[in-house]
Amino acid sequence: MFELKGKVAIITGGAGVLGGAMAAGLANAGAKVGILSRTKSKVEKKVKDIKKNGGEAIALVADVLDEKQLAAAQKKVMKKWGRIDILVNSAGGNMKGATIMPEQNIFDLSMHDFTRVTDLNLKGTVLPTMVFGKVMAEQKKGCVVNISSMAAQQAITRVVGYSASKAAIDNFTKWMAVEMAHKFGEGIRVNAIAPGFFIADQNRSLLTNEDGSLTARGQTIVNETPVKRFGEPEELTSTLLWLCSDASSFITGIIVPVDGGFSAFSGV
Predict the structure, then answer these.
(1) Is 162 a catalytic site residue?
(2) Of the residues 162, 197, 198, 230, which is catalytic?
(3) How far apart are CA 67 and CA 225, in angstroms?
């Protein structure tokens, strides 16, 4: 569909449910994929899976908040493949103390956890962009795709820390798109994908019960999503491949919703 043969892609959080699906999609499109995450066993398993399916991948064990570890990963990729064409900033998440539980209110917020969530989602996107994006700047060509969220675009109860940090991702995406185009030319593009509601390890217990039925929150989300279901991880892939390919060569600074119509629906 979208050809990425010979391209070198780095995906942070590439051992997770959503990141792993996107990593596989990149590999299936012909890209050489560097899978970056903190947990060695999970990264190596994902690399093994991609190779088993005929793709090319390497493991990059690093923390997105550690600039030295990211620099070491960058050197490993450059030594192996000599270039970096694509960066997908998929690493991110939430923490209990930055979430307002039903019996709580905003004044129960843990600022410690709020800061940690902000660091993970925002700094954990900015730092890899600086480290891997520098190679793109030298090449005068490359593509960065950040992962935003529906929580960035409108108020979704409880997830205050996650929402605020993902809203910052939207702004950073636009800012970085302008910066790279102005300073390094039209060959470098920066965009974002804003997933709707997908079930992953971090939110599974919030959206589904042990028997697989929906929780009250999960049912509310489905009711407010026009297509009446959660997304499947693989459904992020086509948008990602489009943004990473030459088919979107005149597109930069946008946030693309992949949400089953959630952002379009007023609730009425």
Answers:
(1) yes
(2) 162
(3) 39
Confidence (pTM): 0.94
Inter-CA distances, 186 with 7, 118, 189, 249, Å: 18, 30, 7, 9
Radius of gyration of the chain, Cα coordinates, nearest whole angstrom: 18
Walk along the chain (268 residues) in steps of 10 and give the mean pLDDT of each run: 91 95 97 97 97 97 98 98 98 88 92 96 98 98 97 89 96 98 98 91 75 84 92 94 97 97 88
pLDDT value of position 177:
98
Q: What is the CATH number of domain 8-196+233-257?
A: 3.40.50.720
Q: 8 — phi, psi (to 5°)?
A: -110, 120
Q: Where are the domains of the chain?
A: 8-196+233-257, 200-230
What pLDDT was estimated at residue 199? 80
The residue count for the chain? 268
CA pair distance 178, 30, nearest whole angstrom: 29
